[in-house]
Amino acid sequence: MFSPAGARSRGKGRDGTPAAAGRGRTPIKQGHARLLSSGEEASPSSPSTPLHMQLPQSSHWLASPGTRSPLLRSSTSVRSSPAIRSLEKSKADSSQPVFVSDLPQQLRTVLLQEGPDGNTVDHSQVCGGMDQITGLSWMIQGTHLFVWRHVSHQSSESFRIFPIPHELCTASGDRIDPKHGNSWAVCIVGLQNENKKSSIKFHENYINASVVMCNRKSLAVVYWTDIFSEAGSIPVLGLSTEDTMDLTTLSGRRGDKAKHVSSMVACSYMKTDIQGCVAIACQSTGELWRFDCTRHGIAQKKVCREVDDGPSRGELGESFYIINSAAARSVAWRSEEGASKEGLRQLLLLTANGIECWDVELATGYQIHLLWTFDVLADLDSGRVLVGQKKVWLLDFQEDTAHRRLKLLLASFSRDRVNGSSYTQYFTVSYSCLSNSVQREGGVQIILPKARIEEENFLLSLHLRVGGKPEGSVMILASDGTATVAHGQGGAIKLYQFDLAWDAGKVIDACVLASSEENEEGSWLVLTERAGVWAIPGKAVLLCGVEPPERSLSRKGSQNEGPGKEDRWRTALDTSRKTSLGRDEPGLRKENPEYQEQSLQDVEAEALVGHLFTEYLRTGQTDGVLEKLQQAGAFEKEGATNVFVLASKAIVDALPKHWTSTMVANTAVLAAVSSQLAEKQRKHQQLLHFLSASKCHEELHHRQRTILHLIMEHGEKLSAVIWLRELHNSSAQARLQGSPDSVRSSKTQVAELGGAVWELGLLAGEKARRNNVMLLDRDKAEIFYSRVSDLEDLFSCIHLHSDMIINKEQTTQVQVDKTCEISYACSKALQTAIRYRDSQHTWYPSPEGLTPWYCKPVVRLGLWKLATLILELKEEASVLLPSLVATLMSHLEELADVLLEAYAGAITAMVEREEEYRGLQMEYWSRRDLLLTAMHHHARALLEIATNDVHDENGEQKRLSALRGLYSPLVSLARRHAGYQTLWDICSELKDMDSLRNLMHESMGLREGRFSNFVFEQCYKSKQFSKLLRLGEEFKDDLALFLQNHKDLLWLHELYMQHFTLTSSTLHWLAFSKEPAVSAMVESIQGELRPSCKVGKLKIADRKRLLNLAKLSALAGGEMLTSEKVMEINADIEMLEVQAEAYHLNISEEDDVLTPRQLVEMCLRSDNPDLILRAFHVFAWGGDIFRRSNKSLLEAAWLKAADQDDWILMREVSERDGWSDEQHVEALQNTALYQAAKCCYSGAYLQKGGSFEDVLPLLQEEMGGIDTEVESVETILMQHRDFPEAGQAMLVAVQMGKCIEVYKEVGEEMEL
């Protein structure tokens, strides 16, 4: 049916008991189809109805029954297989299973050993599994446990054999005691360091692990504390204290079955000093057991849980019944994010009708307790999901940690109401994980709508796996040795059955290959009984999956069965391809053109390019090549999918025919890879000449720049990889010469020979293997030095996984050595690529808008990670090992150069493409300043140490000379990347104004961000005004632009440039500015300009001086005394005089700046006769607009002026004393009305704008041509209380003020 039930990927192993085989299960070479076709009836009288049908193969290139067994291979490589070689010769077929690794040699020997009769020993009771977290596989054969890493290219790298304790074996020691049986549950617990926690799933070489093994029958437990250490490989045995040897059955139950351990999980202790782990096992009848395993012993305890041992048949909506609802199916840890509090972890238990959640305290001696339960069957029944189902089994479950989703596998027994046939239906249901429960997501996903009826024992042997590619797919493993991937595609389910040759044996277990990227699915891995570990690419599931009614999931049909079967497979494949064309597979084709579908035209065009290139190499002729390629559509596609780019990529990424996987200390071996890379470089150059000779280069150069740019980048990366290989060769030979041993074979010694760059290359190769399962059978170093186009992965590994090479557990010396080695390699590799670009510049297209590969984010992140590591190590080494600081900083200098160039190139391309670049520019600036500042401080510290005892004049000169030498490379770097702060600091320290001026003349940055502008800003902030203005003598325009925001000094610069009119305007604005001004401006007026100036407000006297200077500047600029500009300045001076008088009377503040209206209101409120009259002066100086907009205020001023004299008393005195005309005139001339009229209407005083008559006529009779609504002074005075008795005198006074003649020169009223 499905596949053999292997160990759960989270640590559970498959039951290898003969339960399946002993009940008449189908042998490997005989199988039954377990599906009912849509038109076939199942016999009601028969519990099962076999369907005889031909099924498509999943692998059309599989060997015939006579193919040599993979167990007989002499090495782990599968390149001896002609089928594999044919795939590698062209492009790898990602629609087929991919060989990953073979079984360890010792295990293969055990499997092939012969019995006394000369035949191979029967290993049908195989027991094994895979652990996804640690990347370890295990298998039990005889009395030994075999553990190895299933993704390692060489299984011997991390392979261990553990003998099972003799207490569990027979007296002869050749097999397990029958009272225990051969069925085991095995859990592998990873022992990880906190510093390596983020990368533990990706790089397996840094994981230690412990193993817990529990006998399913007797509950005997064996524990190995650390399988990769000598001390931890000693087993700890714990025998059951309960009488579990007697396999009593539960009487009265339908389908009696033995009491056995159905599932087990384990987890290491947390927050405790004791090294150990907790294992939880569930038995089929529902009992839970807790095992506390330490190196001192194993404590076994039964968990209190209600278990119904009697027959129980509970009705649920009268749809179906449940037998023994407490029976346990499986256990699994919930993701660590779901823990209720620290030190606890939640355990999920799948029962016959639902899910239970338990809290487990991860410390020795503690218990577990139930948190909540969830009835799955009740939930499905209430949602009417299981309508018509007679009986339902919960089979298995597993949590998808990436999506926080729980997936359940269920089976149901149903009967067709039309024809009465019975069938089994398989389906899955998803639940989202909540804090205290789960919630169903939608309905069920039917996997098999109609399948043959199975025994309950077979149903309960099915296991579920989740999390592989394609996204959302699940794998179902069955005890008959089949593995089936189910994937929802286009609203319908598609099934893909993993199938290999006859001698591959059963599928023991499956897991997901850990991806190198966070939150991304990996490919499916399956462990076979005889053929090792194989990967199922996501593309294989998409292309080769078929609908359930058309394919059996049994083992029948796994061999070549004739042309009819092959045609049927071709039809299914073609149909699947049509539905999948153009549809991106999540996680597979993301930013990876290798997984993009190619049209027939693309395939033909690619083949044509290869054929024409081969002909060119043979004949040197290119006649008609361009026309042929144009007709074939070779120029149609853009980017990485273009056939020219693919041809270039095929050259630089070609895998070698031969590879030495171990790093042997041999000159020939070291040179072999270099020669392979040199051959690639030669062939890539031939491709460029082919493009040039055929005129394709010209076509690409003018119309498809991106394609040509990508082709040339392949050459850059190839030159960089060649340099890295040369560095590795020289480093390896140097280490060998310094080693007393001529041969080194251990893994640690090999790493030491290769150095940190070698480890980094292995890490990048491992990343490529994880991302492309087609490379899983290749050596990591081979992949790194062969897949040249993926050189960016090197920097991605630095950014994400540098702690795998450089970690805090190492000594400071080792960390510094490794960091400097990687930094040197990366810097020189990128510089080599740039030199290639410079030397081959004639081949390149125009660079506008194209981002070089070394300017892309992944490269920048890797370089920045190295820079931060160097800075961190510098702080540590400055305390512990000061001698290493200079080495670190020298490497930082080289690294900063390439890093900042990468930022500059990326920003330039974004600007040319008119994209938003400000965010990247801010990041560039901040990191540039950080790096330059660190290097500056280091250079200064070096000099301070060297000249600490020198204090004379000659010593100072020597110090400055030494500083210039130390700062020279830093100045060069800062100049290229506009490091203004560093340049300013260095010039200031060296007191070198000449160098500062030279740097200011360079065009660094935009106009508003040039270095000259930065220098002006620094001078202004440090109050170096004299220095600032002196720089303006040489940088007139730049300083004028800068001082637009600093007008307190702008007028001085304008005065120097003899822009007198602009100076007058600036001074006029400053005189009435309400912003705080620098008092240096006032001091400069007084002839004192000191750098200790403070910020403050200007006084009235200062403002008057500024206005006088403004008038002088205007006159110097050619203005006349009667010009509007000069008159406006005079008016403002007069108003300041009024404000000064108010200040002397304590009416206003000295530094207040009052508007004309505020000034008039203040005068009228003062009740001072002089100030009241001064209000009319303000109106005269304010201008027409001010008078018209404040007419009501002007009327109030006239009434206020009339109040200043006692008109009734004046009349009485004149009548009593009999005044003459002269006395009347003299008395009226002393009135305020006379003075006001004289100011406003006589023309004797300075006025701005037109006459007062235009706004307010003096007498009513003068309003002949003015609107009647406009009032006059006469009508205003008529409102006065004394007007009825003294109105004539008031009018005479104002008339006298208007008609009096005053002969004064205007210039006499001006005071400077």
TrEMBL record:
Any one cellular-component term (Gene Ontology): nuclear pore outer ring
GO molecular function: structural constituent of nuclear pore
Keyword entries, A-Z: Nucleus, Transport
Region named Disordered: 1-97, 550-596
Annotated InterPro entries: Nucleoporin_Nup133/Nup155_N, Nup133-like, WD40/YVTN_repeat-like_dom_sf
Pfam entry (one): Nucleoporin_N
Ranges annotated as biased composition (Basic and acidic residues): 563-593
Subcellular location: Nucleus
Biased composition (Low complexity): 35-51
Nucleoporin Nup133/Nup155-like N-terminal domain mapped to chain residues: 115-534
Gene Ontology process terms (BP): poly(A)+ mRNA export from nucleus; protein import into nucleus; transcription-dependent tethering of RNA polymerase II gene DNA at nuclear periphery
Protein name in the entry: Nucleoporin Nup133/Nup155-like N-terminal domain-containing protein
Sequence similarity: Belongs to the nucleoporin Nup133 family.
